[in-house]
Amino acid sequence: MSVAGRIGGLLLQHGFVAVLVVVFIVFAVFTDTFFTFGNIVDMLHAMSPLMVISAGLALVVMAGKLDISVGSVAYVAASCGTLLMLRLGWPPVPALLAALSVGAALGAINGLIVVVLRVNPLITTLGTMIAYRGVGLQLTNAEVARLPEGVRVLGNWSVGPVFGDTLIALAIVIAVHLLHRRTVFGRQLTAIGNGEDVARRIGMPVDWLVFAAFVFSGVLAAVGGVLDTLQIGAISAYLGKGLEFNAVAVIVVGGISLFGGRGAILSGVVLGALVFEMIRNGLNHVGANPYAYRLVSGAVIFAAMYADALKSGVRGAAARLLTRRDA
Amino acid sequence: MTQAAYLRMEGLSKAYPGVVALRGARLEARRGEAVALMGANGAGKSTLMNVLGGVTLPDEGSVTIDGAAVHLRSPREALAHGIAFVHQELAMLPSMTVAENVFADGFPTRFGVVDSARMHREATTLLARLGCNLPTGRLVETLGPGDRQMVEIARALRRAPRIMIFDEPTSSLTSREKARLFDIVQGLKRDNVAIIYITHFVDEIFEICERVTVMRNGATVADRAIAQTSPADVVHLMLGEADSAERLADASTGPGPVVLDVANLSGGLLRDINLTVSAGEVVGLWGLLGSGRTELVRALIGLDPIESGTLRWRADSELQPITPANLHRIAGVVTEDRRGEGLLLPLTTRANLSLTSLRSLLYAFGVIDRGKEERLATDMIGQMHIKVSGSGQTVGTLSGGNQQKVVVGRWLATNPRLFLLDEPTRGLDVGAKTEILKLTAALAHAGAAVLVISSEPEELLRICDRYLVMSRGRITAQLPGTANRTDLLAAVAAAPTPSRAA
Ligand SMILES: Nc1ncnc2c1ncn2[C@@H]1O[C@H](COP(=O)(O)OP(=O)(O)OP(=O)(O)O)[C@@H](O)[C@H]1O
Ligand SMILES: [Mg+2]
């Protein structure tokens, strides 16, 4: 295969890489502040919560399901943690564990509704997305609550030049990637995404696995909510709002199929999140109208989906070529 | 053969809303023997095996293994009792590798992590036992049906089963793969495994089975030693009538004008294909699996790209150039992968049958006339003897063979002037096969042009007016309708075999 052909193949395999490169070059050329070390560190910092939440969602998507309650889960979990510290004077570590437990519990509720009541995951989590936010607003009275002073400084914690939460987020994404790629649990989730009936016939405990994926998603949403709260230094009624859609967009652009069973979590989540963060950050640097971000993001999602459609066309053709055997 | 049965299934019943799939079915299997399970489409063979595989819970009845009653409530429990199942509809995970598919029912781990090295190593060994040297890292979606079948068999063998179920394993295998499968079955017998073998090919069971159990309408009607029966006997038990292999159409109806003309077509595997199909003529495309038969049909209807060549189609009185995509629109096409490409499994039988003729079912404002749709569906169900509880039964719940009849039936409803049929009888029982062949002949008689592919020369011999022999992507010979089986086989054998560089 020629070099050009190989590059073309690579771009098709990972449509989002092409998008990423284009976005990067555009901003690097049109501004002189974008492509600086400081700015890149900032971007990695800003996208950390989104990466963690997307990684959790990716596990659910791998099994061919969807969880759009992650933004609300992040809000409720972070609010519980914060309020436990503020109102009951809990120390940070137990408060953090409580927040994660809340995330696990909310994820478990999603999982139970999907597995036991057999409600479509999109409908289920649309419902709980609204309901959980209601619970969160009730808890916080929709007010802003600032983190205790001692905890707030954690938001600026950094290791060398890199922010601490970037490292935490990367570690989590790598862990989830390994969970997907290297463990029985991950393979089984992928199998369910390939065909739930088939997985059942083979004898996999499909219901347990789907339930567990929702719990994972809930816990990681809680982690994302905590990271987000630390960055802002407070919880507000808007925390995590719209995050579910950003996370879905990251997954789609990162080449993880919403139909399940296909995609790589590490590259997908990191590069997918990077695309959106670069657009947001870059548009700021260009001084564009703040609403332009939505339009451009939308266009990027379409571009990525188109590349994906081309890719499945190629995949189909390749499959046919490869099925030819000698008589 | 006087040894007691190892597996005994008795009085099994299962009813679905509107359909009784099993009524007191019975089956016995002995270690070291293969029992053939025969029956027409919808007789309940797969359902009975699903009970044994823990996939379906029966309403009534008992299963005993080695004298002890067992309860099979899930595929896992069945596995635990040493039961392995090669499904009629393969249980494949397309985006995963061959090795992962072989080990899907229990991944090997080391320190909590999937042991990939071991998985690939053992998968390679298992496949080698099947005489198959697939790279275990390849994705299953890139495999053809025969290789997928091998992967599924490898998965079943891995557990060293004591009872092994094959549900129509040969319907997508080449003759070489089939020979290999038979070797495996013989090997399993030597290892003292009890084998249950479902097929619609009556001759196969005389080759590898010791006993035969015949089902009709959900009940077991016979259980005999192979030595005490004959193929005609088995078919009679299955259908209650004798099957014949006589020709279904005159070879000399005299074709009408050329309807489709293909000149110098190349692309993919195909090289310099020239052919014509005339109105009122059944042309048999004959060649071994992999000779390019399927690829030719796919190229004609634009599913595979064409590099060069022209297609011409008789629109009114003249042959005019036509694109593959347009040809696809006007021709009735039945492809090899009917389940994947042809059926909407969650919809009703009625909706699937009317799908291609919706335009003719409309009344005011583009609304579908329910009455007409229902009539069309009932007509087709009657004509094709599709076994359903009613036109409203979900297609996904029909038996394998009946699903195939639906796909074929839907095209009959549209009355196209050209039919491209790729293995239209695959998976059908002997009776239904004859029906489809009769229909094909009738279509040609009514003036349609038909191009039909089949792996079984006996089938082609019953209906074709002309044969095109394919080998390695080329048409290597043309035979008249008077050719016999020996001529067909000789034509394939004589096909030039160019250097394997291609
Ligand atoms: N889930 C289901 N819901 C409703 N009906 C069903 C279901 N599964 C099977 N049936 C019905 O039970 C009957 C027996 O089907 P089964 O699949 O066992 O037939 P089979 O003997 O395997 O036929 P084939 O040779 O065509 O594969 C059919 O009439 C089928 O429609
Ligand atoms: Mg069946």
Describe the structure.
The complex is a heterodimer of chains A (327) and B (502). Chain A has 327 residues and is mainly alpha-helical. Chain A has a single domain (3-326), classed as ABC transporter involved in vitamin B12 uptake, BtuC (Orthogonal Bundle), CATH 1.10.3470. Chain A has helices at residues 3-13, 15-30, 37-46, 48-62, 70-88, 92-115, 121-140, 149-152, 164-182, 184-194, 196-202, 206-232, 243-253, 265-286, 292-323, and strands spanning 145-146, 158-159, 162-163, 234-235. In chain A, the strands form 2 sheets. A two-stranded antiparallel sheet of chain A has the order 1-4. A two-stranded antiparallel sheet of chain A has the order 2-3. In chain A, helix 4 packs antiparallel against helix 12 and helix 6 (92-115) packs antiparallel against helix 12. The two termini of chain A are 27 Å apart. Residues 316-327 of chain A have low confidence and may be disordered. By secondary structure, chain B is α/β, with parallel strands linked by helices. Chain B has 3 domains: 7-239, P-loop containing nucleotide triphosphate hydrolases (Rossmann fold, 3-Layer(aba) Sandwich), CATH 3.40.50.300; 256-331 and 416-496, 3-Layer(aba) Sandwich (Rossmann fold), CATH 3.40.50; 340-415, no CATH class. Chain B has 17 helices and 24 strands. Chain B has a 6-stranded mixed sheet, sandwiched between helices. Chain B has a 6-stranded mixed sheet with strand order 18-21-22-15-23-24, with helices on both faces. Chain B has a 4-stranded antiparallel sheet with strand order 2-1-4-5, covered by helices on one side. In chain B, strand 9, helix 6 and strand 10 (194-198) form a beta-alpha-beta unit. The interface between A and B is large, with 33 and 47 residues. The complex binds adenosine-5'-triphosphate (ATP) and magnesium ion (MG). Residues 16, 19, 21, 39, 41-47, 88, 387, 397-402, 429 of chain B line the site of adenosine-5'-triphosphate (ATP). Adenosine-5'-triphosphate (ATP) binds at residues 16, 19, 21, 39, 41-47, 88, 387, 397-402, 429 of chain B.
